[in-house]
Every structure is written in structure tokens, then in C-alpha cells.
Amino acid sequence: MTNNAHHIVFANEKGGTGKSTTAVHVAVALAYQGHKVAILDLDPRQRTSYRYMENREATRKRLNIDVPQPLYDVFEDDNLARLEQLIERMSHGVDFLLYDTPGRDDKFARFVATWANTLVTPINDSFVDFDLIGQVDPETYKVRKLSFYAELIWEARKARAKADGETIDWVLLRNRTQYVEAHNMKRIVAALAELSQRVGFRIIPGLSERVIYRELFPAGLTMLDKKYLGRLATSHLAARQELRELIKHLALPHSAQRTPDGNKPALAKPKLVA
Hints:
alpha/beta
């Protein structure tokens, strides 16, 4: 890559973790901050983020409203060289290029992971999802060994460092945390903290399970498009705050000058969340 775009890859080989919803909301949040943003959907079958952006563009035209619109595309080919060409085109002139990858093992997802500046792995707070990155003892819940995916990312980070000296910031995004039973949550938090020390990812809070995220999809709107959402319930305001916290904890370059809605200054770069 010869461009200066910051590459953010949302990757998890397990589906249902909120990957596309998070990617779209982060893309729109960065656009609200005044950045030039593009999002590339690497799942031509589901194409969730692509359809979200299509819906958003249609709503902008239908209602004649002024909401920021990231550039977007979907990769429908089966050729790595053509993917590189598409990435080069989409990277030109943008500050951030986001990738929404399939919820399965995929060669193109592996490729873009090696080029990530920030690699975001959303997981739900359950040992079913934890198994993607590490296996725990069934009695002590101590981590026994890394899972295949964690080893894959570990190797990608080593290859990247060797190739150009860059470090991939691997971020584990914990979604749906408040719906986990307290005792089980403690076990998950302890296991994540142990594993983070071994493989070097950061742990940050993500988004809760809320109906509003699914309801906004047909219009392509997000929690930040407050002028066009009408009167919001308390839970919706909480959802917006969750998104603000997510953006802050991602600690992306040049995005700490404003909050996702472009108003108040953001806080300092956070420490590891245990």
C-alpha cells in the first residue's frame, strides 16, 4: 500500500457478533468528525454494510437530508490482485478505509488483516465466542492454549512488523456485556485479561444488544443522525453514549479531536479495559 489511509479491519470468523453494525456506525462517526471515510464490504453474499450504505444514500436523496455519506463498495471478485486494485482506488484521498469481513474463514479477510493499522474483533461475552481466540479449562477457566484465529492474527502481526516495521493494533470489542450473568462475566473478563497479556490485544467496551440498531437498517441511519430520528427514548440515548465511548476507546489517529457527533473534545487515550 502506498497511500496514507488508516486501515481498520473488522474481522471475526464467527457470525452474529455485531461486526457489520459496528463497522457502519464507526464509519459514520468518523465521517461526522469531518474525515473522509470509505467502507469496503468483503462479503458479497451477505453484503450487510454495503446494503446499509445503499439504504443511507437512498434516504438522503428521498428526504433531501444532509447526513455524511462514506464512500462504499463491495468486493465480488475471486482474485487477490483485483482486491488490491480496489483497495488502492478506495484508499486514495480518504483518511480511513474500513473493511467489513465475512463471519467465516476467508482468504480475502486474511489478506486485509495483514494490512490493518487497527484490527477490530467484536465478540459477544460468552465462552462460545471466546473459543475463537482461546480455549479454557472447563474447571478452572484458565486459558489452556490459543485458538487457531488468535495464532493467525499473531502471525499476521509478526509478518507486518517484519515487512514494514508497523504494528497492528489488535482491539477486542466486547459486545452485549450487560446481558451476561455476573459470575460468568467475571470468568470471561479474567480469561480475556490473561489472554490479552499473552497475545497483546486491547480490550474495549462495545455495543449492547438493542432493537434500535436493527430498526435503523432500512433507512441506513445511525444513532448519530439525531436530527432525523425524532424523540429518543432513554435507552436510545444510552446507545449513543455507548458509541461515543467505543470511538474514544478505539483511539484512532486524528479522531481524538472531536466526539463522533463533532462537538465536545474527546478524552485522553484509554488504558486497557480489564
